[in-house]
């Protein structure tokens, strides 16, 4: 199974690395980071760099294509080179997936029309711009397109794909192997739990929504 994760400047690292930790453990999996041009890609904090081993031009066909999110997706929504590459990959991919605002890029590529889809809570309503039906879920499956909510939800999505493709036993084993057993010290992982003051703070800190 060939897995491709799109890399681009100002991407959010965990959007990619969370699913990577799951999908890279699939039997026989080959996983590559692909960018417009191969080489180092700086993530949104400016403190972490990922390396794209392939350019879009020489990338193999993906069985699973993953589009992460982050501030850099705003530029991708307008980049026809990237959008055309996604459309071409999507024609042959078994699964097309996104994390966080990566779904907005799928929308800009025309892949979400008439579909239920999700993204980061602060950007959920933007999905309507692309003809999608926004749903507030950790991840949402519509035929072979899977969209995940913000950042950490990519881990849930990747485990869900693992269960579909390889069964609950392997998905459980990978979950145990990465010790994904969330018990956060505070319970503020969604707008409804965090309350309006924290929601407002997040919008200010991250420029969300």
Give structural notes.
This protein has 209 residues and is of the alpha/beta class. It has one domain: Class I glutamine amidotransferase (GATase) domain (Rossmann fold), CATH 3.40.50.880. The chain is 35% helix and 20% strand. The protein contains 8 helices and 11 strands. The strands form 3 sheets. The protein has a 7-stranded mixed β-sheet, with helices on both faces. Strands 3-4 form a two-stranded antiparallel sheet. Helix 1 packs parallel to helix 5 and helix 5 packs antiparallel against helix 6. The relative contact order is 0.14.
Given this structure, which CATH class is correct? Answer: Alpha Beta
Distance between the termini: 36 Å
Share of helix, binned: 25-40%
Order of helices and strands: EHEEEEEHHEHEEEEHHHH
Number of helices: 8
Entry keywords:
209 residues; alpha/beta; Rossmann fold; seven-stranded mixed beta sheet; two-stranded antiparallel sheet; 11 strands; 35% helix; 20% strand
Topology, please?
Layout: E1 2-6, H1 13-23, E2 30-35, E3 39-42, E4 49-52, E5 54-55, E6 64-67, H2 73-76, H3 80-92, E7 95-99, H4 102-108, E8 116-117, E9 133-134, E10 139-142, E11 145-148, H5 153-166, H6 168-177, H7 191-194, H8 196-206
Parallel strand pairs: 1-2, 1-6, 2-5, 6-7, 7-11, 8-9
Antiparallel strand pairs: 3-4, 10-11
């Amino acid at each position: 199974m060939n897995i491709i994760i799109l890399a681009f400047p100002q991407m959010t690292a965990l959007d990619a690395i969370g699913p990577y930790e799951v999908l890279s453990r699939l039997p026989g999996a080959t996983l590559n980071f692909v960018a417009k041009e191969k080489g180092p890609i700086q993530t949104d904090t400016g403190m972490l760099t990922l390396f794209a081993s392939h350019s879009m031009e020489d990338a193999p066909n993906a069985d699973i294509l993953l589009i992460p999110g982050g501030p850099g997706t705003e530029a991708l929504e307008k980049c026809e080179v990237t959008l055309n590459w996604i459309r071409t990959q999507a024609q042959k991919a078994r699964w097309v997936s996104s994390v966080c605002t990566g779904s907005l890029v799928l929308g800009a590529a025309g892949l979400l029309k008439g579909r239920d889809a999700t993204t980061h809570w602060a950007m959920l309503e933007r999905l309507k711009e692309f003809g999608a039906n926004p749903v507030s879920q950790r991840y949402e499956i519509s035929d072979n397109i899977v969209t995940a909510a913000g950042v950490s939800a990519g881990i849930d999505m990747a485990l869900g794909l693992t269960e579909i493709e390889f069964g609950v036993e392997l998905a459980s084993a990978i979950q145990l192997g990465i010790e994904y057993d969330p018990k956060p010290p505070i319970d503020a992982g969604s707008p409804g739990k965090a309350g309006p003051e924290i929601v407002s703070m997040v919008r200010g800190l991250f420029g969300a929504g």
